Amino acid sequence: MRKLAIALTALFASALLSIGSVQPTLAASGSFELHVPVLYYHRIRCYPVGVPSKGDYTCPAAFQAQMTALVSHGWKTITIDRLADLMHQHNCPPRRTLVVSFDDGSLDNYEVAAPILESLGMRGSFLVNPGRVGQPNRMSFDQMRDLLARGHAIGNHRLTHLSLPNQPPETLYAEIEGAQQLLQQNIGFRPRTFAYPYGRYGKKGPQVMDQVRASGFELAFTVVRGARESSNAPLLSRRLRTSTQTTDRGCSSS
Length: 254
Known about the structure:
- The chain is of the alpha/beta class.
- It contains 7 helices and 11 strands.
- The strands form 2 sheets. Strands 3, 4, 5, 6, 7, 8, 9 and 11 form an 8-stranded parallel sheet that branches. Strands 1-2-10 form a 3-stranded antiparallel sheet, with no helix packed on it.
- Helix 1 crosses helix 2 (60-72).
- The longest helix has 19 residues, at 169-187.
- It is globular, with a radius of gyration of 17 Å.
């Protein structure tokens, strides 16, 4: 197990080293691009036998090994809000800057992931489903406010856990704008960033992205593999999924 953890750590770090440049790109069209890696996780706990979506689980020891490897190789975190600032300002962060994000607002994000990040001088970005607050194993609004006070960021991941493509306009409004309003009521502001549920934004039609745009989001994240944020397509930003459990899979840009 120890040898496997060491191998995982080395592979994870070396994969991200290949993405090390986050220098801006000014394309011929005048668009501005960054290539800041945005890692995404779900649950920071070991996979419970019999539970679906095994890939959503990352053991705490594996997560800590990954974050420790990043820090030891000179990587530093910014939040999704800071990334939105940089895009708006057409500014570039230092080399070896990345975002560590978490989808769904699970309680272990608050109880396990945030303390691990803080112990290493890092901060996370938590994209939550405010309509699920009060359900078992979900963060409360008090915990979200506490994360904000500790330097982390909160983003929107829609109201519940509904896949958005092919939904009627009133459902899209309730899931996306309704989540914005609920978050504003309970944490004091409307988040600037959004993550599409299951990464699905509706490739055959603009309805989902139209509502995301109408709700005022500055950046929205898919699960298309890569490290790219573009002023031409800020609502189609890419992310990187990491290895989970104790496998030898790392992460890399596409």
